[in-house]
Specification:
The protein has helices at residues 16-22, 31-44, 84-98, 107-122, 138-142, 159-163, 174-180, 194-199, 203-228, 233-251, 255-264; strands spanning 5-14, 56-67, 70-77, 101-104, 156-158. It has 265 residues and is α/β, with parallel strands linked by helices. The chain has one domain (5-264): 2-Layer Sandwich (Nucleotidyltransferase, domain 5). A five-stranded mixed sheet has the order 3-2-1-4-5, with helices on both faces. It is globular.
């Protein structure tokens, strides 16, 4: 297993302001009323009320960053409703600086397309992320054979997609697989509750939930590396012990890591 590795996950909200720009809506209606109207219409049609990816506003991007210096957990959060572009740019700046292996669970199907659409709307620049080896120097050409965009390259590893052999009907829930592998799995909420929690003013709870999700993904990535021979049995056990110690250190600062450690034990 080579470092650096950047595991990421996003949490998003329905972009009602964007929906209003694309659809006529009475100015007398609040955003909540517009959203309720949308959900009612979708229910009548027997369709999902989950807004399309280009109408998902990013609230949180949580990351586990692992390199030779250690393991860090960090979240970029749009706390004021005005910082979405900044947090997306900061995320891509991290890729630009470190050129890590990106790891996700359903990142190809959800997280990255949302980041693409929202990044375009905010004028985000992400040179290295979009590098597909078309430049003139040798380092650029290396991206032709292993880049972040191709489904079958490993510079971005969508664990869910790969483990299902790129066949959507085979997809497994991250929560279920994490628990079956002996890891804590989801704590506190799931993605379907994020908007409701946000409306209740619980942005920090959403951030904490996203962080534990991304830690589950890193642990599954370690298990995958053991399966594929990227880690020996001894190296895997050493890494898992290191992660558990890192979580114990985090638990001294925030209670959700205490809960995570208790679920793990």
């Amino acid at each position: 297993m080579s470092w650096p590795v950047l595991v990421f996950d996003i949490e998003s909200l329905p972009d009602i302001a964007g929906w209003r720009r694309l659809n006529p809506a009475s100015p007398d209606l609040t955003d909540l009323q517009v959203h309720a109207q949308w959900k009612a219409e979708r229910a009548e049609q027997g369709k999902s009320d989950f807004m399309p990816l280009y109408l998902q506003r990013i609230l949180v991007i949580s990351c586990v960053f692992r390199n030779a210096d250690g393991l860090r957990v960090h979240s970029f959060v749009d706390r004021d409703g005005q910082s979405e572009g900044r947090i997306i740019q900061t995320f891509f700046n991290t890729i630009e600086k470190h050129e890590p292996q990106l790891v996700s669970w359903n990142g190809s199907g959800f997280d990255l397309p949302v980041l693409h659409y929202r990044g375009m709307q905010h004028g985000v620049v992400a040179d290295k992320y979009w590098d597909m080896g078309e430049g003139g120097n040798a380092s650029d050409r290396g991206y032709k054979w292993n880049n972040y965009i191709s489904r079958y390259h490993m510079r971005h590893l969508d664990l869910m997609d790969l483990l299902a052999k790129y066949t959507p009907k085979n997809n497994a829930p991250m929560d279920a697989l994490a628990k079956l592998c002996g890891f804590p799995g989801k704590l506190g909420m799931d993605g379907s509750q994020v908007h409701e929690q946000f409306l209740d003013g619980k942005t920090e709870d959403i951030r904490r939930y996203c962080e534990t999700d991304v830690m589950n993904t890193y642990l599954l990535y370690c298990r995958f590396q053991k399966m594929r021979g990227g880690l020996t049995e001894a190296e895997y056990e050493q890494e898992i012990a290191f992660v558990k110690d890192s979580v114990a250190n985090l638990a001294e600062q925030e209670p959700h890591w205490q809960q995570y450690l208790q679920a793990w034990n």
